[in-house]
Amino acid sequence: MTTSSGATGRDASTRLTVAMLWLLIGVFVLYPLCRLLAMTFWGENGFTFENLKPFVSSWYDQQAAVNSILLGFSVGLAGTILGFIFAFAVTRLQMPSWAKFIISAITILPLISPPFTSSIALTLLLGPNGMILTLLGIEDFNFYGFWGTFISETLTFFPVAFMTLSTILSRIDPNLEDAAYSLGASSLTVFRTVTMPLAVPGIANAFLLVFSCSLADFATPQVLGGHSFPVLPTQAYLQITGMYDFKGGAALSFMLLIPALIVYLLQHYWVSRKNFVTVSGKAGGRSSIHGPGLLVTTVMSVVIASVIALIIAIYSVIVLGSVVKVWGVDNSITFANYEYVMTHGIKAIKDTLLIACIGTPLGGLLAVLVGYVTTRLKVRGHKTLETASLLNYTLPGTVVGIAYIIAFNDKPIVLTGTIYILIAAYVFRYSSAGIRNVIAALSQIDPSIEEASRSLGTSSVKTFTSITIPLVLPAILSGMKYLFIHSMTAISATIFLVSVHWTLITTRILECMTELQFAQACAFSVVLILLVFMASGAMTLLARVLCRNGDTIGAR
């Protein structure tokens, strides 16, 4: 047992930690959302729907809402199908380990790149003076609109479904499929009656995730959609930045918030509760018979090869586009575009790295504190605290950005134009992965380890830093890596928050695209991808060293 003084200290530190977390989440999560809703539904005479009337009466805004839902559903369906095909290939089909590694590495590539990298490459291939159109002699071809946006978003977001479904498929007990094989079932029958039904919850979850990503995407529709294919995120952006109409932007954000919350509720209350227990704890070798049959396997292989070839082509075009003078006009090789980046874009590079380097450890600290408080301490309202801490991630980035610009543009808290608003946006939006990782890691650790430490007279703070932290360190570092990557590549939330004082590489890429400076946009993209690769590699090596030491400490 702990001493009374120790218990008192523990209570005091607990109360202080919980109060601090609620204060931070209240200021940077709940307060901006409340300000957004207040601006939408509160007028001079109190509660009102007047701010929604322009949306109701505007055919263009209504079309933007329909387009957002249509695009999200289409991308969700296509992305989930592609993600399942790739996940099934690396978990079920017979192929060398190196082939699975290459497929996984290439598939993940769009996730660590700017969200509109594919739109840049597709514009260079199929846009005005595009390589493919020039080779085929096609002049009157309009790639912009729904189909261009659909293809680009599908290539960008299907890796989300791949990561979700590969985990689900790898956790299905192979003995279940082998039992069906032993009863004489064909490969196609096993796929149809065993594998697919067990994967249904994961498939539904993957669809909802990809749908949410598409619904929240701002940059791709901005580049490829244009005026012919408006969506709610771009309309809200134009409403605020073009017309300085914060009430109109808030109203459009609310309309975007409705389908986002519906998707979140479906994911949280339906999908998360539909689980099949397939992990028996018994090891077993998988049958030598793999796959859903020769025909389906052949089709899957063709689809995978085609998509991988397209991804490689996209990034090859980005590299090639960065070293030509004027794409489609003067294709002579030059490094002037990189000189442009290192002169006119050096501030954006420094600002992006600084914001990411400050926000990443802060996000890691937030993740471990929220995870520990909600999992170990289980104070009153811990479930509410956990939900509130994840709220910013469930909301579309456009909604978060508009909420921040509304909340922190005037008293009592003025952060507009400062580095703090950008850091806060990243920390309280992308620390969600770390929070979930820490919660999952703590749920697997026997609490008696920490209780034994405290029973020997060790303070709760000392136990937390010397026992708990080392044990959950891999989960913390994984979440920090996720936050860093998104801090480098995200744009939906922060497009509203940049200023002349603080800018980002992604916003510079978007500026180059809107000004038709494709070569400079490609150069910025290459530099950003290289920075993310190098930083991710360094963080991976650091994680291996720290986690090895952490395991030693935890064991002691």
Keywords:
556 residues; mainly alpha; MetI-like fold; 2 domains; two-stranded antiparallel ribbon; 4 strands; 74% helix; disordered N terminus; disordered C terminus
Account of the protein in words:
With 556 residues, the chain is mainly α. It folds into two domains: 1-38 and 338-556, MetI-like (MetI-like fold); 54-321, MetI-like fold (Orthogonal Bundle), CATH 1.10.3720. The chain has helices at 4-41, 53-57, 59-92, 97-108, 117-126, 131-136, 146-170, 174-182, 187-216, 219-225, 232-241, 246-269, 294-321, 336-344, 346-377, 382-394, 397-407, 419-430, 432-443, 448-455, 460-489, 505-514, 518-555, and strands at 42-43, 46-47, 324-326, 330-333. Helix 1 packs across helix 17 and helix 14 (336-344) packs across helix 23 (518-555). The longest helix is centred in the first third of the chain and has 38 residues, at 4-41. The model is unreliable at 1-9, 275-289 and 549-556 (pLDDT under 50).
